[in-house]
Amino acid sequence: MIGRRLEVDLDAFARNLAAVRRRVSPSRHMLVVKDDAYGHGVEQIVRRAAGAGVEWFGAFDVDTASTVRALGDRFRIFTWLTVGAAEIAHARDLDLDVGVGDEELLEEVADAAISSPVRVHLKIDSGLHRNGVRPERWEAFVERAAALQAIGRVSVEGIWSHIAEASDAEDDEARGTFEWAVTRARAAGLGPGVRHLSASAASFARAEFRYEMVRVGAFAYGIPPAGGPTATDLGVVPAARLVAPVVAVTAESAQVGIGATDGIPSALAGRMRVRSGSGWHRVERIGLHALEVSALADTRVGDEVTIWGGDAHGVTELAESIDSIGEELAVRLSRRIPRVYG
Ligand SMILES: *Cc1c(COP(=O)(O)O)cnc(C)c1O
Question: How many angstroms does the Cα of residue 160 sit away from the middle of ligand 1?
Answer without folding.
Answer: 12
